[in-house]
Amino acid sequence: MTKLRLATTWLDGCSGCHMSFLDMDELLVDLAGQIEVVYGPLVDRKDVPEEIDIALVEGAVSSEHDLELVRKLRANSRILVSLGDCAVTSNVPAMRNHFPVKQVLECGYQQNADRNQSIPSDVIPALLPQTRPIHEYIPVDVFIPGCPPCAKAIHFALAALLKGETPDVHELTRFGA
Amino acid sequence: MRTDFSKPAPPSNDKRWKMIDAAMRRYGHKPHALIETLHTVQSVFGYLDDDAFRYVAASLRVPLSKVYGVATFYHFFRLKPKGEHTCVVCTGTACYIKGANQIMKALEDELGLRAGETTPDNKVSLMTARCVGACGLAPVVVMDEEVVGQMTPDKVLERVQAWRES
Amino acid sequence: MTPSSRVKTLTIDGRPVSARSGETILKVARENNIFIPTLCHMDGLSPVGACRLCLVEIKGSSKLVPACITSIFEGMEVSTKSEQLDKYRKMILALLFSERNHVCSVCVSNGHCELQTLAQTLGLEHVHVPYLYPVMDVDASHERFVSDHSRCVLCTRCVRVCEEIEGAHTWDIMGRGAEAKIISDLNQPWGFSESCTSCGKCVHVCPTGALFEAGKSTAEMTKRQFLPYLSLMRGEKND
Amino acid sequence: MTPDEIRVSAKKYRAERTKKKHHVCVCMAAGCLSAGSDVVKTALEENIEKEGLGDSCEVRGVGCLGLCSAGPLVSLDKERVLYQNVKPHHAGDIIKSLGKEPVKEIQCDLDQPFFISQKKVVLENSGRIDPERIEDYLAVGGYSALIEVLTNWTSSEVVDEVTQSGLRGRGGGGYPTGLKWSTVAKADGTEKYVVCNADEGDPGAFMDRCILESDPHRVIEGMTIASFAVGAKLGYVYVRAEYPLAIDRLRKAIQQAKKFDLLGANILGMPFSFDIEIRLGAGAFVCGEETALIASIEGKRGNPRPRPPYPAERGVRNQPTLINNVETYANIAPIIRHGAEWYSGMGTESSKGTKVFALAGQIKNTGLIEVPMGISLSEIIYEIGGGIPGGKKCKAVQTGGPSGGCIPEEHLNISVDYESLKSLGSIMGSGGMIVIDETANMVDVAQYFMEFCRSESCGKCVPCRVGTVQMHKLLEKISAGDATVDDLTLLIDLCDLVRNTSLCGLGQTAPNPVLSTLRFFRDEYAALLKPSSATAAADE
User: Fold this and answer.
1) Distance (Å, whole) CA B31 – CA C168
2) Pure H helices in D3-112
3) What pLDDT, in 10s, does the model give residues D298-349?
């Protein structure tokens, strides 16, 4: 049996959803037989591969880089999953939306910085005017809300997708869960 | 909490409060006279402030939050004083079709104001009205109570300039 | 009037049920354990029919009616579930989530919020209308309570409990449309309100984390129920 | 005064009115006043004095003469001459020419369709009498219907007559007036109220303002007859504070009517009392909705409440309340005077009588017109209205304000009646008729109306409060060329939601301008859209 190619990524978020993914513990062993992780923070690969079966996207779209990445993933994936509240609702990252980008950067890199009080220009991708959930930019197939969604909900969703079904996770998780 | 329901004293010795009293008396100081009373206050003082709200609330025995809620629901009521001159751009459909937007934009650019604001020198207040009912003359601007029809951006700016220089 | 003439029979979702004349669809449905979602409704407060989540279908009528405020009649055939109702309810919830800043994960009421629970119950797992992200105030001037307008759904339960039960009428709504906002007295900070008795009823009827006890952190704010007993008492008196 | 005394006085006023040889009538309605008709009136009076014609000529301030775009208007009543765009310097010529050839330079052709195609019932006195003098109204037969009703009719006969006439509510909904009256008449209540809705909120509509400014007594008479029919003792006129002149004239009219015992306790010495109070609206469109209007009359925020119970059962102070619009009341006296049969002889099968429209926008003759129901829109636009100026083509006609829709040029042959307009996704509405020419973009028009609904939403129910904001944002996005096909789908979904789930009429009809422009001008939307984000992503 060929393994399904799984990609995960982490945009503007806290990595908590990836932690929750790892919290599947022994169930991961079971999944490992059916899934090959081809891209994401868990594997060492720089470019987005072709022909992804399932992409799990954590985090909201905040920067030009986020947008480019999520578009690329969408184009290369059969099923794209919006994983966790940041991806689904934009959650805490969107709390910066009340302020202009300039003010956000000044606050982070100047006012609250202990040293090197300057706004980086080259190394950091430019912020978009607002942080928005990913489905405002690309079509999303499955939504798993939760901050983070519990391991059980993630496993339930993956198990359903492996069987070729569309998961309904609403009994296992919710906004803010 | 207020427990004393005797007749409240007016906020100041200003004689004009007598006119407010008369309006409320006409309706027997009933709570349903609230909107009529606020109309009277605005026509006498030009706008509504907290002193007026407290006095009207106490006289008609209407809760403060209700008075404030009513006053802010109706856009005819002003909570800030007007400038010396007022320029009200009608934004009704007929005026819109005939270019009220351009007039509004010209005024906003010239005065550096948004609708509802007054110039820092307190000379001109810029406002909008839903429809002044003079659609036959569209586009219409009400300059200090005078309805001026078939207005153009140039004409309106000319008149506003004259106010500012006066 | 004979007692029997006050009893009406009707069907809800095909189930025959009986009810007293003058009762609302919502009351009868709940007595029979039939779920109709509500948000602005609260037993013991006057109904306003504002949130529109409790809309139901009535056979023979093209208009949807709010169950919280519509009286039953003999032979009425009510449907509380349909594809269309489900779609509308989810959209209304989505609109509410989009209107202000409901960041459930960091909300004091996380886990105890009626809006959050409704989203889960009705299966709303994402909000497909764009979020509006308005800038809203937090008022922490009161020594015991806090109001966070970001979480307010304008259900007016606080306004009604304050007026109808406490009799203080500290709260009301100012402005209109999307600019509407709950205010205390003359739109002054809650802590400086002259009419507030600090009874806390508004806090406990608030369905979300818009009104909460000072010092409560994420997910710590639970609400006490006290109005059902009051309405029971009143109901007994009325009978 | 007794009915006979009123009849005698009326006869006297009629004689006085026709005594002088020349009547120079100057339009003193808001439109002409803003064009300077008050100055023209003074100039005419000075010239009469100068020429020493005081015995044979008199100058009258009258109500709206209709052709607002050509104001100030001056009419010579007896000679059937109308002058347009009159300036004070024309006064001398006008006075000197009396009894001779009219002044050609400013003469307006009275045989053009604008004048001959109209049928005046509601506006019969408009432009003929001085609205500030009850004597003028009495002289032309005013209050005779009220006297007739009070002396010879029973209340149920009045309701029957109105029912027979086929009159339908002129505020927009078109609910049968007689049915409404009979419901209120039959309702139980310790007190009943009669309310006149003069909160003319549709932008682009000014019929009610003109009626109140031109013939206020007609509305008072209609309301008093209504109060007799339904058994009310108190009436309210809820009028917009933005109409100071109408309010002023109405106040004067009420005082005069009281002085003549036509209003107040024991009207004309009979055991029937009715009084009218004025309530000022304060800039809230939603108060045109009847339950919101009632809340406002009670001094509250203008939030609508769910119906039923309808105001006919529970209205002002929870008592049975009759609410009709200004034009509806203005139709009552003529129906009583001439009979239901006469009235139902005008119009179509289901829409009887005449309708007043405020014609505005990109059209040559803007102003107030009254036409029989069933006339075609094209006759109104091209004949009465004189067509589109500047050689442009008509694109659409907007009727019904923010609750209405846009009727495209190809459908202008439609008959103007409640059902036909509805079949095209618009409504009769209160009578605003805005002509839109080919230069307009219909997405912009929809956006304009949605902005209106958004800022006029009371905010009570969720679909209207948030739905209108979201719909407006989507329209802005479409206009800016930033929207995708998905955004249009969402817009249509929101229209469906807001229409079917909103609490009151404002919300339920808020999507109409979008839906009707989508129906007839979808290509204008399509031209602005980008492909769906799904396709866009696949292309990358």
Assistant:
1) 16
2) 3-19, 30-34, 37-51, 91-96
3) 999 999 999 999 999 999 999 999 999 999 999 999 999 999 999 999 999 9
Inter-chain Cβ pairs, chain B and chain C, closer than 8 A: 48
On whether both C59 and C95 belong to a single domain, the answer is: no
Q: What is the pLDDT of residues D35-83, one digit of tens each?
A: 889 999 999 999 999 999 988 999 999 999 989 888 899 999 888 999 9
Q: Which residues of B touch C174 (CB under 8 A)?
A: 68-69, 72-73
Say if residue C11 is in the same domain as residue C95: no
Residue of C nearest to B1 (CA): C195
Position of tokens 């306790």? D265
Residue range A4-95+129-162 forms a domain whose CATH class is alpha beta
Q: How far apart are CA B150 and CA B33, in angstroms?
A: 38
* Residue carrying the six token digits 């919280």: C68
Does C235 fall in a domain?
A: no
Closest residue to B149, CB basis, from D34, D282, D298: D34
CATH number at residue C147: 3.30.70.20
D-chain residues near A79 (CB < 8 A): none
ipTM: 0.94
Residue with tokens 């003109």: D210
At B152, the pLDDT band (50, 70, 90 cuts) reads: very high
User: Are C108 and C221 contained in the same domain?
Assistant: yes
Interface residue ranges in chain A relative to chain D, Cβ cutoff 8 Å:
71-72, 74-75, 137-139
CA A63 to CA A124: how far, in whole Å?
9
What does the alpha-carbon distance between residue D171 and residue C117 come to, in Å, rounded to a whole number? Answer: 43
Residue C106 lies in a domain: yes
The reply to whether C35 and C19 lie within a common domain is yes
Interface of C with B in 185-204 (CB under 8 A): 185-187, 194-195, 197
CA distance D400 to D426: 7
From C81, C111, C135, give the residue that closes a domain. C81
- Count helices and strands (H / E) in chain A: 6, 7
Peptide bond into A148 cis (omega under 30): yes
Residue numbers of the domain that contains C167: 87-229
Joined tokens for residue D20:
């002088």
Instruction: Tell me whether strands A52-58 and A4-10 are parallel, antiparallel or unpaired.
Output: parallel
Q: What's the CA gap between B64 and C196, in Å, rounded?
A: 11
Inside any domain, residue C223: yes
Domains and CATH numbers, chain D: 21-110 (3.40.30.10), 141-343 (3.40.50.11540), 349-437 (3.10.20.600), 442-526 (1.20.1440.230)
Instruction: Answer positive or negative: Cα dihedral of B15, B20, B23, B28.
Output: negative
- Which helix (H) or strand (E) is A30 found in, with range? helix A26-32
d(CA D165, CA D346): 10
Residues D304, B72: contact at Cβ < 8 Å? no
What pTM was computed for the model?
A: 0.94
C110 touches chain D (CB under 8 A): no
Give CATH superfamily name and number for B85-165: Glutaredoxin (3.40.30.10)
List, in sequence order, the alpha helices (H) in D300-394.
326-338, 340-344, 377-378
Residue C51 and residue C109 in one domain: no
DSSP state string for C100-158: TT--GGG-TTTTS-HHHHHHHHTT--S--SPP------EE--SSSEEEEGGG-----HH
pLDDT, tens only, A102-156 = 999 999 999 998 888 888 877 889 999 999 999 999 999 999 999 999 999 999 9
C-alpha distances in Å from residue C148, one per residue of A115, C139, C166, C181, D5: 35, 6, 22, 11, 69
DSSP element (H, E) containing D321: strand D321-325
Tell me if C238 is assigned to some domain.
Answer: no
Q: Helices marked H in C8-113 — which ranges?
A: 25-31, 83-99
